[in-house]
From TrEMBL:
<dbReference type="Pfam" id="PF00067">
    <property type="entry name" value="p450"/>
</dbReference>
<dbReference type="InterPro" id="IPR030904">
    <property type="entry name" value="CypX"/>
</dbReference>
<dbReference type="InterPro" id="IPR036396">
    <property type="entry name" value="Cyt_P450_sf"/>
</dbReference>
<dbReference type="GO" id="GO:0016705">
    <property type="term" value="F:oxidoreductase activity, acting on paired donors, with incorporation or reduction of molecular oxygen"/>
</dbReference>
<dbReference type="GO" id="GO:0020037">
    <property type="term" value="F:heme binding"/>
</dbReference>
<dbReference type="GO" id="GO:0046148">
    <property type="term" value="P:pigment biosynthetic process"/>
</dbReference>
<dbReference type="InterPro" id="IPR017972">
    <property type="entry name" value="Cyt_P450_CS"/>
</dbReference>
<dbReference type="GO" id="GO:0004497">
    <property type="term" value="F:monooxygenase activity"/>
</dbReference>
<keyword id="KW-0408">Iron</keyword>
<comment type="similarity">
    <text>Belongs to the cytochrome P450 family.</text>
</comment>
<keyword id="KW-0479">Metal-binding</keyword>
<dbReference type="InterPro" id="IPR001128">
    <property type="entry name" value="Cyt_P450"/>
</dbReference>
<keyword id="KW-0349">Heme</keyword>
<protein>
    <submittedName>
        <fullName>Cytochrome</fullName>
    </submittedName>
</protein>
<dbReference type="InterPro" id="IPR002397">
    <property type="entry name" value="Cyt_P450_B"/>
</dbReference>
<keyword id="KW-0503">Monooxygenase</keyword>
<dbReference type="GO" id="GO:0005506">
    <property type="term" value="F:iron ion binding"/>
</dbReference>
Amino acid sequence: MVNPRFSILSEDFAVDPYRCFAQLRDQAPVHYEPAIDSYFLSRHPDVKRVLTDHEAFTTQTLQVRAEPVMRGPVLAQMTGAEHTAKRKIVVRAFTGQALQDQIRAIHANAAELIAPFLPRGRLDLVNDFGRPLAVRVTLDVLGLDKKDWQQVSAWHSGVAEFITSIVLTPERRRHCMDCAEQLEAYLVPVIQERRRHPGEDLISRLCTAEFDGIAMSDREVTALIINVLAAATEPADKTLALLFKHLIDHPEQMAQVRQDPALLPAAIAETLRYTPPVQLIPRQAERDAVFADGTVPAGAVVFCMVGAANRDPDAFADPDAFDIHRPDLGTARSFTAAAQHLAFGTGLHQCVGAAFARAEIETVAAMLLSLLDQVRHAPGFGYRETGLYTRGPASLHVDFTPARRAPAPH
Ligand code: HEM
């Protein structure tokens, strides 16, 4: 029996949610959280059902959770022909030839950022490297000026805080809204300029694309830019840090990946399964929905617990072990609609950036592994993860022996 006082909002859960997942799946797979009047589902089949039954569970809740800071409707709120058309524009900017060009830019950004740390033999993989890298890479794809990355990153943090907070004080809400308004004010002149002089970047494509013969308004383009900015940066930098954390903690698997870099995609897929950076996906029940262990009433907010679903023994054998060789991983399909893990969601709104994320993390991890020998936790470093909605290491201080190689040109 789950302790009746158990709460997903408790400090205990925040410190290590993974400790609670088995009990939740077994004893309270439809967990009600009265303080926020929401339901939390933890079993793999239940989460999959919610994410694929688009009639019964909608993304209506994003109108309150995301739209105010996105300054307009985001992709995940759209349905039907509008969703298909706009999703296609975004997908095209992240796949095919565009992806090949971006891999070169990712490589160049990573090489520039890592260079000053090489002689030191020490860095914080999250704050010194992964986070600035993810923002700079996304700015490149969007076609925004990289010199503004710190300012854009600060505004983006406010937007992300709004979307990913379970409870938000009025002061923090005001701060998040200020960030969103300033980001919008920064973007509008860029959009107007791209309408006059379009290039190859995503903002230009959004400005010149038409839906039903009509170009998108500044507001629609702004919302899609902020949507991509928020969706692309946070999970990517968290996945990179988590990949290194797991490989450092499993030195035999680190050695295997170093020896055979073709194992990197499996290591990334297993990282996404084992510790998905997006832990919660919200939906709204359109009608009463009956699950094996309880009913979610019509109109209720439902949170899909991706971390718990990915550790469900009904979906993966020995789910609490990190194992890049697990037979049920299915590396190739892990980045597609057929993935068994739910780190990219599933159904209509499954991540559009999965292939890009794989290419980005693979490129950067391969470079880091070749430049940093004997990567290990820095002495005295205390590992800590933060976040209920998106979750990752607060920092990852590592020591390493610099390899006597410069980053290979890409
Ligand atoms: C490891 C990295 C990533 C993870 C774990 C991740 C995770 C997710 C998840 C769980 C969803 C589903 C949300 C829902 O169903 O409501 C999603 C949607 C989305 N992701 Fe990602 N994401 C990653 C990287 C990216 C990147 C690099 C982009 C860049 C374009 C991106 C863009 C999007 C967009 C635009 C959506 C909304 C799609 C729609 O509603 O049709 N993501 N992502």
